[in-house]
Each structure stands twice: as C-alpha cells, then as structure tokens.
Amino acid sequence: MPSYLIQLSYAPPTIAALVRKPTNRSEVISTLVAKLGGKLVGSWMSFGDYDLVLVIDDANNVSAAACSMAVSASGGFTKFKTTPLLSMEESVAAMKQASSLGYTPPSA
C-alpha cells in the first residue's frame, strides 16, 4: 500500500476554532482515510510552513488525490501538500532500474 506525507497549513478561522475548542482530529482523519481504503499511520502538529503533518497509507494515487481534494475544498486550510513516499526497498529497485537506463545529460 503506497504511503504519503501530507503537510497542511490551517486557515486563520480554523486555528481560531481549534483555540476556542481544542480538539484531537486524529479520529476524524483516520475515518476519512479509511473510507478510501487506507489508514492513518501518524499525525503531528508542527512549526514553520505547515501546522500539521500526517503520514497515511492509502490504496492508490487516485484515493490520495480524492482525500486531498476533499480536504482542500473544505476551505479549512491555506496549504495542502501531498508527497508520495517510497519504501527503502522501492528506492533500491528504482536505483537499480535507473542504473540500467544509460541516460547521458546534454553537454555544453
């Protein structure tokens, strides 16, 4: 099952709502991802460009995109970034495949 790193930035009204009523949204996120055949691996609050970081395992790219679209369309976030993750085994397989391609970069 493919894994994805999701980074979100809350919109100001969303932050205000969470400050008024502090809530652990992990169960809501877990339920949403389960509807797509996936699972929430973990969720963390963060500092910097993004306020929330999630790792999910999802059924496929279409399901991950559907999740992204549904959450983005809610208007609760100013940024939503999804990064597909490769396992180390997949990374090694990609390296091996890359080594057999014989790609030559353009020369000056």
Explain the overall architecture:
This protein is an alpha+beta fold and 108 residues long. The chain has a single domain (3-99), classed as Lrp/AsnC effector binding domain/regulation of amino acid metabolism (RAM) domain (Alpha-Beta Plaits), CATH 3.30.70. Helices cover 41% and strands 28% of the residues. It has 4 helices and 4 strands. A 4-stranded antiparallel sheet has the order 2-3-1-4. Strand 2 and strand 3 (52-57) form a beta hairpin. The protein starts with a strand and ends in a 9-residue tail after the last helix.
What is the average per-residue confidence, as pLDDT, rounded to a whole number? 94
Q: Count of DSSP E strands?
A: 4
Q: What gross morphology would you assign? A: elongated
CATH fold annotation: Alpha-Beta Plaits
Helix content: 40-55%
- What characterizes the major β-sheet? 4 strands, antiparallel
Structural class: alpha+beta
Spans of at least 5 consecutive residues whose pLDDT stays below 50 are none
Number of H/I helices:
4
